[in-house]
Each structure stands twice: as structure tokens, then as C-alpha cells.
């Protein structure tokens, strides 16, 4: 779906599909949601208006963490090359926000030039002033990873007053702006520095409302041994429990994301598995980009509706003549009670309301008499958008995916799922080297050898086979079942193993097929997932010439 990473024909068709959903989102925002936002000054309180590039932009990944947790090194690890403006060191090195984007030529675009580029999605950042723009840049380079995603590096979060005052701009405000627009937020922690400072806590709280985008990485985990790693992981989870108010446990990826030798090699397999899981999550971003934009627009529409009720209620309670300033202070003081009143009157969930303290701060500088009264027509339009237009766009995505697959098949192309490719992602799924994920392990073991890998471990299986009393070299399904259930695997799993082992589909097993069944059982007991189709190298040599189509689980 929406793959712009395949061949030229596939790339063009998939771009058209993405544009169709993006165009639909752009139209319903401009025509139906924007008028409500404008009427009730939504942009002055919450988030700037969305521009066209916000709907067309590639998925973005935001890296956040305290200084020297490996944010910049993580980007370099993904790209497998340096990007313009990179600085790595144990001290606080990255002093600016850097958007690492794809470009034909390497270069750096300063912040002031970047925010006037109508083709980029950063124009609204001009509102944070020159102090921020002097600390913002775009680094471009021709890298395959960046053809699919944009990665945003951030300054390391410091402790003390310098974090809040000496930066000269609203650091948490910038983080909030990015958090609303990115597809994934990666919080990095150093295995040696687990303390969450008050400043870092404030930054994490600024990401509230976007918890579904957050992934946590415990970086530099090779610097501690397996006992220390267990304690470090427990300490991190305890610290996170004090910051994240949700009862669910956050997903933490444990690894070491650089290209240096591991200090402690004992956890190599764990690091590989965790990296594979994280990369799969990141690789799915282009595939889910349209749904993410839909989801963010729905959240924005719900907040805009609540904001309209709040502003109109404040306007309604303001006196027409005298005592305006006194009434304003009273309303701000009792804002939490006004929130409760609106919840009851309009049956709105408390989770849809903005933070009451932030709202109080932003109301201080406003003239309540200039607020607009409630205009039901605008709200009806937004309700219709949520009920009809959004639902239509959501239904359109799988339909267009099916049309794309059919078109690609008709034209002789393989309909490829969109995915992040290149850099470290290529190595993660590399099939041409023995170092790709899962190579030489589990069901891939023996794939590049001439000897049938099952024969090495079949001695015990052959003894069991003879004890089951084969007739003319075969044992029945009943006899095989009595043996296979001793593995204590569920019948559903054993049924799949039988389908894969009975290569010739005759309802009985010969010695080779029985040895294969035992081999598959052992692999499943070791924690490996059964393949949908029996790998060619696992087919018994005696069956390879007579069976050109190898067993599949969906075969009857």
C-alpha cells in the first residue's frame, strides 16, 4: 500500500494513491475544520494552522533524550553515514534541532530560510522567533533511508535553569509542535544515566496526548553485563512509572546502536532481537502514514470542538458593561469548574479537554469580550466531517490498496509493501549475507548446505519410528499422533506440523517425513514460529523431485 519504493511504474501508481488520501484530508480540513479553528482562535491557544506540506510530508521520526544518550549516533547508525552538521561526543554536542532530509546534494539549510520554504512543513515554526531559528537547520543528503522518512535530531536536555532560560526560546513548545506532527517519537536513555531530571520530565509531559507515538530505547546496553542490565532495566521502568501516568507498561527496546565492538557480548542475541523489533516498527511508518494523518486530524477536530465550547462559554459569562477585568480573573480562576460544566452539558469525555493550567496561562493575555459566541452551524459541519468524510477516507485506504495490488499483478509487477529501506534497515533483512536477522538459525539453519539438516538429528527419531511398528515403511496418522502429542504442543500447532511434514499428502509418514516432523516440533519448542511454506532445504531429499510445490499451511 502506498509504496513509492518499488519499480518506476509501481512508484508512480503508489504516489497517486497517497496523494488521493492526502488531497481528501487537505480539502476537508480547509473547508470544514479550519473555519471552526479560525472562529474561536484555536491557533493562538493550541496549534498553528496546518499547511499543504503537512498533508504531503514523509513520515517523521523525532529523537528526544538527555545529553550524550546517543541520539545523533543513532541517526548515523540508521543512515550508515555522516550527515552535514553532525557532531558526536560525550559532552552536550548537538545544540540545535536538525531535520535530516533527503536531497540530491549534501547541504545545510538554515532555519530562517527553511521556514519560508512553501514546500517544507516547517513554516509554522517561525512563530518561535529568531532565537530558535538560529538553532534550527535542515541537513540534506542522498541516502536511501531518507527517501522514505525524515529524522529530527534534538539538543540534549540539560538540568538546571539553563535548560529553561538560557536557550532563549520555548524548548518544550517546539517539542510539542513536533510531537503533534511526527509519526514516531523515540525517547533514548543511557544505561549509565537513568535519572530523569525535572527538565526532562517537563519535556516528556509536553509529549502528552501522543503516547501512541512514543517508543523508548535503552541505549548503550552493551556497557553493562547481564546482571547489571537486569537491574538497569528495572530501574528504568520504575523511573518511567513516575513520569507516564498510564497503567500500561511502556515498551522498552534494549540495544546498542553504533558500529563499535560490543563491550559485553553475552547479550548479543537479545540486542539483535530488540533491534529487529524496533526496525520493523520504523519500517512500517510509510505503510501507516495515511492512517496516522487521519488519526491526528480526528484528535485535532475533537480538541477544536472542545475549544469552541470553552471560548463561547467564557464569552457568554462576560458582563456587557462594567467589571470585565474582575470577571475575567474569576473565570480563569474557576476554569476547572467551567470544564466540568461543559463536560456535563455536552457529554464530552474529560480526556478531550486541554490541560487546565496551560489554558489558564494562555487566557491571561486574551480579551474575553472579543471571543465569539457559540455558532452551532460550524460544529455541525465538523460533526458531519467526523461521521462521514473521515469514515469515507478510512474506507478508501484498503480499497485503493486492493486496486493497487490488482493493477501491479496485471502489469506483471510485484505489489510491494512500502517500507524504509537502505542503511541499517537493509542489513536487518539482508538475505545475501550470513549476518542478516535469523540467518542460519531456526528454520533457516542448513539453508546453504548440501546435507539435509534434519539427518544430523534424526537418530532418536529413527529409533522412535521403528518402535511405532511401521507397515511397509510407513506409520499411520494415529500412531504419529500418539507420539507427537507427547510434546505437549496444542493440537492446532501439531496439525500445522503434520501438514508441513506430510510432503506427499498420502496421510501417513515414512521415516524421512517422521524425522522432519520431530525436527519441526523441536524448533517450535525452542520458540521459533512455523513457516507458512516448508523451506526447500527442509524437504526430504527423497521427495524433492516428485514434489515441485512444497507444503503450505493453507493447503487442504
Automatic annotation (TrEMBL):
InterPro entries according to UniProt: DUF5600, Dynamin_N, EF-hand-dom_pair, EF_Hand_1_Ca_BS, EF_hand_dom, EH_dom, EHD_N, G_DYNAMIN_dom
Any one Gene Ontology BP term: endocytosis
Dynamin-type G domain residues: 55-286
Domain EH: 457-545
Membrane topology, from the record: Peripheral membrane protein
Keywords: ATP-binding, Calcium, Cell membrane, Endosome, Membrane, Metal-binding, Nucleotide-binding, Phosphoprotein
Record has Membrane as a keyword: yes
Domain EF-hand, residue spans: 489-524
Secreted recorded as keyword: no
Subcellular location as annotated: Cell membrane; Endosome membrane
GO molecular function: ATP binding; calcium ion binding; GTP binding
Domain of life per record: Eukaryota
SUPFAM superfamilies with a match to the protein in the record: EF-hand (SSF47473), P-loop containing nucleoside triphosphate hydrolases (SSF52540)
Gene3D superfamilies: 1.10.268.20, EF-hand, P-loop containing nucleotide triphosphate hydrolases
Primary location group: membrane
CDD domains hit by this protein: EH, EHD
GO cellular component: endosome membrane; plasma membrane
Protein name: EH domain-containing protein 1-like
Organism: Heligmosomoides polygyrus (Parasitic roundworm)
Amino acid at each position: 500500500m502506498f509504496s513509492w519504493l518499488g519499480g518506476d511504474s509501481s512508484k508512480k501508481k503508489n504516489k497517486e494513491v497517497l496523494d488521493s488520501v492526502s488531497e481528501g484530508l487537505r480539502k476537508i480540513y480547509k473547508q470544514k475544520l479550519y473555519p471552526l479553528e479560525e472562529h474561536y482562535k484555536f491557533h493562538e491557544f493550541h496549534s498553528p494552522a496546518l499547511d499543504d506540506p503537512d498533508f504531503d510530508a514523509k513520515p517523521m521520526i523525532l529523537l528526544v533524550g538527555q545529553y550524550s544518550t546517543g541520539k545523533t549516533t543513532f541517526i548515523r547508525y540508521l543512515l550508515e553515514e555522516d550527515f552535514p552538521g553532525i557532531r558526536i561526543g560525550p559532552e552536550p554536542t548537538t545544540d540545535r534541532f536538525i531535520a535530516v532530509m533527503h536531497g540530491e546534494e549534501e547541504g545545510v539549510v538554515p532555519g530562517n530560510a527553511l521556514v519560508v520554504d512553501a514546500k517544507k512543513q516547517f513554516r509554522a515554526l517561525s512563530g518561535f522567533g529568531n532565537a530558535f531559528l538560529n538553532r534550527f537547520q535542515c541537513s540534506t543528503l542522498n541516502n536511501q533511508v531518507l527517501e522514505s522518512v525524515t529524522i529530527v535530531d534534538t539538543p540534549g536536555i540539560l538540568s538546571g535553569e539553563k535548560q529553561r532560560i538560557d536557550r532563549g526560546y520555548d524548548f518544550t513548545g517546539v517539542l510539542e509542535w513536533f510531537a503533534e506532527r511526527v509519526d514516531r517519537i523515540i525517547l533514548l536513555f543511557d544505561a549509565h544515566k537513568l535519572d530523569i531530571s525535572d527538565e526532562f520530565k517537563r519535556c516528556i509531559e509536553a509529549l502528552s496526548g501522543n503516547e501512541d507515538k512514543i517508543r523508548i530505547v535503552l541505549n548503550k546496553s552493551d556497557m553493562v553485563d547481564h546482571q547489571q542490565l537486569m537491574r538497569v532495566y528495572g530501574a528504568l521502568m520504575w523511573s518511567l512509572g513516575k513520569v507516564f501516568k498510564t497503567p500500561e507498561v511502556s515498551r522498552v527496546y534494549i540495544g546498542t546502536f553504533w558500529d563499535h565492538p560490543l563491550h559485553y557480548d553475552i547479550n548479543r542475541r537479545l540486542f539483535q532481537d530488540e533491534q529487529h523489533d524496533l526496525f520493523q516498527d520504523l519500517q512500517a511508518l510509510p505503510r501507516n502514514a495515511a492512517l496516522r494523518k487521519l488519526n491526528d486530524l480526528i484528535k485535532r477536530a475533537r480538541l477544536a470542538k472542545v475549544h469552541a465550547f470553552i471560548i463561547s462559554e467564557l464569552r457568554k459569562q462576560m458582563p456587557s458593561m462594567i467589571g470585565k477585568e474582575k470577571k475575567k480573573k474569576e473565570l480563569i480562576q474557576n476554569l476547572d469548574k467551567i470544564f466540568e460544566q461543559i463536560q456535563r452539558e455536552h457529554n464530552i469525555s474529560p480526556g478531550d479537554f486541554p490541560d487546565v493550567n496551560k489554558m489558564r496561562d494562555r487566557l491571561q493575555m486574551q480579551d474575553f469580550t472579543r471571543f465569539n459566541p457559540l455558532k452551532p452551524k460550524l460544529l455541525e459541519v465538523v460533526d458531519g466531517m467526523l461521521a462521514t468524510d473521515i469514515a469515507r477516507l478510512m474506507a478508501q485506504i484498503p480499497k485503493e490498496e486492493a486496486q493497487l495490488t490488482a493493477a501491479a499483478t496485471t502489469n506483471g509487477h510485484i505489489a510491494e509493501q512500502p517500507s524504509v529501506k537502505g542503511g541499517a534497515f537493509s542489513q536487518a533483512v539482508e538475505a545475501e549475507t550470513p549476518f542478516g536477522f535469523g540467518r542460519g538459525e531456526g528454520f533457516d539453519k542448513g539453508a546453504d548446505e548440501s546435507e539435509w539438516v534434519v539427518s544430523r538429528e534424526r537418530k532418536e527419531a529413527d529409533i522412535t519410528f521403528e518402535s511405532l511398528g511401521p507397515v511397509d515403511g510407513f506409520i499411520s496418522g494415529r500412531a504419529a499422533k500418539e507420539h507427537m502429542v507427547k510434546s505437549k504442543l496444542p493440537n492446532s500447532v501439531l496439525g500445522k506440523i503434520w501438514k508441513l511434514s506430510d510432503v506427499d499428502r498420502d496421510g501417513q509418514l515414512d521415516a524421512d517425513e517422521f524425522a522432519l516432523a520431530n525436527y519441526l516440533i523441536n524448533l517450535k519448542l525452542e520458540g521459533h514460529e512455523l513457516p507458512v511454506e516448508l523451506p526447500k532445504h527442509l524437504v526430504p531429499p527423497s521427495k524433492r523431485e516428485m514434489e515441485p510445490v512444497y507444503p503450505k499451511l493453507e493447503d487442504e
